[in-house]
Amino acid sequence: YPVSCKSISMCVLFCLLCLSSAQAEERTLAGKLHHLRVGNVREWSEFPDKAEADGLTIKFAATQNAAAQTLRIRQQDVKQTWQVVLNGKRLGRLFRNENDMVIFFAVPPRALVNGENELKIEQSGTRPDDVRIGEITLDSRPMQTVLGVATVSATIFDKTTGKPIPGRITILDADGALHSVGAESNETLAVRPGVVYTSNGRATFGLPAGRYTIFAGRGFEYGIDSRQISLKAGQTTDVKLSIAREVPTAGWVSCDTHVHTLTHSGHGDATISERLIVLAGEGIELPIATDHNIHIDYNSLAKKMGVRKYFTPVIGNEVTTKTGHFNIFPVQAGAAIPDYKRTDWKSILKGIYATPGVKVAILNHARDAHSGVTPFGPKLHNAVIGENVSDWPTGLNAMELINSGAQQTDMMRLYRDWFGMLNRGRYLTPVGSSDSHDVARHFVGQGRTYIRCNDEDVGNIDVDQAVAAFVAGRVMVSLGLLAEITVDEKYGPGDLVPKVGGGQQTLDVHIRVLGPSWSKADRVTLYVNGRKIREEKIPAGAKPGVQWDAHWTLTRPQHDVHLVAVASGPGVRELYWPIAKPYQPTSPNWEPRCVGSSGAVWIDGDGDGHRNCAYDYADRIVKSEEARLPGVLKALANYDEAVAAQAAGLLDRRGVSLQQKNVQQSLKSAAPQVRDGFAAYLRAWRETQIARSRSK
Fold it and tell me: 480 in the Ramachandran plot: left (φ > 0), alpha (ψ -120 to 50) or beta?
């Protein structure tokens, strides 16, 4: 095709378009995928340095259409808004969805003109967005006919009970793309291109003739089943799919603390009815309704739709302010909305906890910029010691580590932030969530939190019990995996392991890595006060469910520490559970990873019966030595890197210049972990100075 810097043009022979619909129903307008990008900034390294163009323009000859016709487009990696315009009139937008998919647009009567026609696909804004668009065809039949050539009647069965079960049906065409279906959302279905959620296990939808693969699943805990089918015109095919629970989660309730709807948040695409269907289909047992600055109760609608037995809904709110986003729950029905127009955290959190019923305040996506503020960015936060340089009071009791709708380029970035907060004495519960605003793009429950709670009747979960366990940190975080930790056969996340008599010098640390057959772990790591102390590769070929199980012996520390287990593995790319790319990437290079982690288990190393953090020890040392460097460095030799970093921060605030030559000279003879702690603090301190100087 002739290519210019702004468009790609192609002439379609007029004689082909004049053939009768019986002879040629479908006509190709663009046969290949074209790489488009607005601007010169490459979004992802998987794309070439230079795009073909910043938009696609196709000119073709046609005759005016008396009846509706259909435009078919294949799209990949669409993040921003791209308009589809025919002869100057908008047909619609590409789906804002990075997945490979085939979508359809209705071409209204008389939208085509006699002679030359022009189809344009162009981005509305100027943000970098590498996309591939092509395989465009024009079909002389209306869209309902095109997508209803053949019929599929699919049923998802629970392998254990033999009964239909809610779930997600994924439809891929012969090229492996999500393919739109001839069905619409209703009281039991939530439908998007290539995805049909069913609340009762049954779904009927149309498809063009061709070969397809149909998948069924039900979130993290279940396996995947699939069938390959070949459809002919006029054919009706029954597809039976059976899935079984593979991941043992008895005694743990699956919770998504970050759930939105188009109905009440005003963006995304999931109506509240679709949201309830998807919750049932993804196996979320304790969903928290967190639309922006509004309190929503799913209960009555869930009962009306027949899905209430699959989960216990909780009223919540994403309190969306200019200086941070905070998910809060449980909220008492009828409670007033907290004042979200305030900008200082002290008054924001005061208003949150004054809201009747609220016991949880989560800091959401702390490394993302909203309204120009990144709460845990270096301008405002020293991540090594968990201290906000503007001295914001925390008042929080949880923070998101995994947000599957707004992922980080570095999977461990927010984990390191969390470790710093724990070492500072900010005892935050780790959270996994989806931040889902959509039906199938960033879907509910991909990131989730497991809470230690009675789960025998998921339709009647004791919310007070679940909330108390959550606040205590008795949780696990999941994005395709789980890491379960038990110390001395008894203590888990949120617990303090006491120091027993008899001179016991070791701890038994039992770790299990859990995951379904379609998600594989390849490593497991143990962190003590945020420092990696042991890591082991997990061999391939592990069975689904418990993929790895081992006991590690750990020397009992002489001071209190926290233990966290983290398992990870290759990210799921398959379109029945695709992991989304980072929301605000820091690099064009990214490799998806699944991750599962435990909450923190605290070890009472000093035997005083209390949980002491690294800051507590550092503060005692600095005070007892009256901030005199030689004594501080000598005392720190009995502690770890985290305590040393906290001591460095305290000395800095007391006016001891850590960059002075005599200080650096003294550090040369200090214990290795002390040198490492001071160096880590200084690196973070310099990042803050640079960030603050740039903002002036």
Answer: left
d(CA 137, CA 132): 15
Give me 451's structure tokens. 């809470």
Cα(46)–Cα(49) distance, integer angstroms:
9
Distance CA 546, CA 521 (A): 10
Beta strand ranges found along 523-604 (DSSP E): 523-528, 531-537, 545-555, 561-570, 593-598, 601-603
What lies within 8 Å, CB to CB, of 50 at 6+ separation is none
Quickly state the pLDDT bin for 644 (edges 50, 70, 90).
Answer: very high
The structure tokens 């990131």 sit at 447
Q: Which residues of 423-457 are buried (b: 16+ CB within 10 A; e: fewer)?
A: bbbbbbbbbbbbbbbbbbbbbbbbbbbbbbbbbee
Q: Which of 24, 94, 93, 34 lies closest to 58, judged by CA? A: 34
Calpha distance 383→578 (Å, rounded): 30
Helix 661-668 crosses helix 672-694 at what angle (to 10 degrees)? Answer: 150
Q: Identify the three-state secondary structure at position 551.
A: strand
Helix ranges (DSSP H) in 216-298 = 262-265, 272-282
Contact call for residues 385 and 399 (beta carbons, < 8 A): no
Tokens of 410: 């570095």
Angle at 141 between CA 139 and CA 147, to 5 degrees: 85
Counted residue by residue, the chain has a size of 696
3-state secondary structure 292-326: ECCCCCCHHHHHHHCCHHHCCCEECEEEEECCEEE
Q: Which tens digit of pLDDT belongs to each residue from 600-636?
A: 999 999 999 999 999 999 999 999 999 999 999 999 9
Q: State yes or no: pLDDT of 20 exceeds 60.
A: no
Count Cβ atoms below 10 Å from residue 299 Cβ, excluding itself: 15
Q: Which two tokens mark 257?
A: 């603390």
In the predicted structure, residue 511 carries a pLDDT above the cut 90 = yes
The answer to whether the CB of 564 falls within 8 A of the CB of 416 is no
Q: Are 360 and 470 in contact (CB under 8 A)?
A: yes
For residues 633 and 674, what is the distance between their CA atoms, to the nearest angstrom? 7
Q: What is the mean predicted confidence (pLDDT) over 38-63? A: 94
**DSSP H or E run through 629:** helix 629-636
User: CB count, 10 Å around CB of 344?
Assistant: 13
Classify 506 as helix, strand or coil.
strand
Count the neighbouring beta carbons within 10 Å of the beta carbon of residue 294.
Answer: 15
CA gap 25, 48 in Å, rounded: 35
Peptide bond into 393 cis (omega under 30): no
Question: What does R_g of the chain's alpha carbons equal in angstroms?
Answer: 28
